[in-house]
TrEMBL record:
Catalyzes the specific phosphorylation of 1,6-anhydro-N-acetylmuramic acid (anhMurNAc) with the simultaneous cleavage of the 1,6-anhydro ring, generating MurNAc-6-P. Is required for the utilization of anhMurNAc either imported from the medium or derived from its own cell wall murein, and thus plays a role in cell wall recycling. The lineage of its organism: Bacteria, Pseudomonadati, Pseudomonadota, Alphaproteobacteria, Hyphomicrobiales. InterPro entries: Anhydro_N_Ac-Mur_kinase, ATPase_NBD. GO terms for molecular function: kinase activity. It comes from Aquamicrobium segne. The keyword Cell inner membrane does not apply. It catalyses: 1,6-anhydro-N-acetyl-beta-muramate + ATP + H2O = N-acetyl-D-muramate 6-phosphate + ADP + H(+). ATP binds at G12, T13, S14, M15, D16, G17, I18, D19. Pfam families: AnmK. HAMAP family: AnhMurNAc_kinase. This is Anhydro-N-acetylmuramic acid kinase. It is an enzyme of class 2 (transferase). Belongs to the anhydro-N-acetylmuramic acid kinase family. It comes from the Bacteria.
Amino acid sequence: MATICAIGLMSGTSMDGIDLAMLRTDGVNLVEQGPCLSVPYEAAFRERIIAGLEVAKQITQRSARPGDLAALEQDITRRHAAAVEKFLSDQAGCWTKPELIGFHGQTVLHRPQQALTVQLGDGQMLADLTGLPVVFDMRAEDMRHGGQGAPLVPAYHAALARSLPENIAGRFPVVFVNIGGISNITYVPKNGDPIAFDTGPGNGLIDQWVMQKVGISFDQDGEIARQGQVDEDVVASYLQSPFFDRPGPKSLDRGDFTLAQAEGLKLADGARTLAALSARAILKATTHLPERPVLWIICGGGRKNPHIMHDLKAGAQKMGAQVISAEEAGLDGDATEAEAWAYLAVRSYKKMPLTFPSTTGCDRPVSGGIFVKKPLS
Ligand SMILES: Nc1ncnc2c1ncn2[C@@H]1O[C@H](COP(=O)(O)OP(=O)(O)OP(=O)(O)O)[C@@H](O)[C@H]1O
Ligand SMILES: CC(=O)N[C@H]1[C@@H]2OC[C@@H](O2)[C@@H](O)[C@@H]1O[C@H](C)C(=O)O
């Protein structure tokens, strides 16, 4: 099958910046990873997006852009175009010439129970600015078919599971974990369909906690949490949420969990407790899986928080499983999501399914995405 070289662009729920990655794929198993890059947002722009999340709460029609959201969408798109230009001039220009962009945009609202998900990102504008064809808005069609509209990375995780390096290949069931602002997992059995869902808060609450307490955007290398203790009562009170008892498919909005239960804790104890919550929420997902995983592969920024990793390893060990970072699996854990968006863009272009009943709850395998600009020759 013909391969396509695509750039994936992801601006995730942490709102820390734009991740870019290049990938050559046939949209099935053949995947060759290229260069990647992260372009951070400066603090003021991140604040503007955070303000946009509040405004977005009033949206009932997904095309509506009240208040600053229309201007913000244009600015987010311009920043993506500038990031692509930098990416291509820095290093990616030396790799294969890209033929397609997969553009996620910035989620500002996600209400799966109302079949409403809103990503800021103007695909036509990005195509005009970059001169490349763009696939964007890849969540909506899934929702039209009764799906959660998230997570979408499972199709890529499943492809990765089939091409792991020899030393870890064949260890099924394997679970890919993405610890971003929110965490999500993809369970891949030896035979049968992957199962996926959001598992709970990832780094989002930790980021909000250290921002609220000391005005910094994240707890780098878990330095703040290192001085703290886990408050088991607070972890337990978070885990009492009915969200954790619900089997998948399920997905979260960034605002579904708040700092309310952690208020009153000291700075370090809060950071350590919320790291413990992130790990426990992921491990709790096993109660909704048909078999216990034997291998967990951790992607996303949360793998750089040693407390989350420590707690995950300790918990998984009790279940007879091993936890490794994406890097130990021969992957780049900062690039996986952006690679996924490149992979999904190629699948969308080829009209292949992006989501499945077992990953989002859609009524049948569903393709999706809007394709803009000239068709590929
Ligand atoms: N060195 C580090 N130490 C601790 N935490 C880190 C480190 N580097 C990144 N992080 C955390 O990872 C977050 C970014 O992760 P990532 O880029 O995977 O999230 P995202 O893609 O925005 O989120 P999502 O997957 O929910 O869309 C940061 O906000 C921070 O909390
Ligand atoms: C609506 C939305 O943007 N959801 C994000 C968010 O961040 C993590 C988790 O919640 C996941 O469901 C999803 O992103 C990943 C990349 C996905 O769709 O696979």
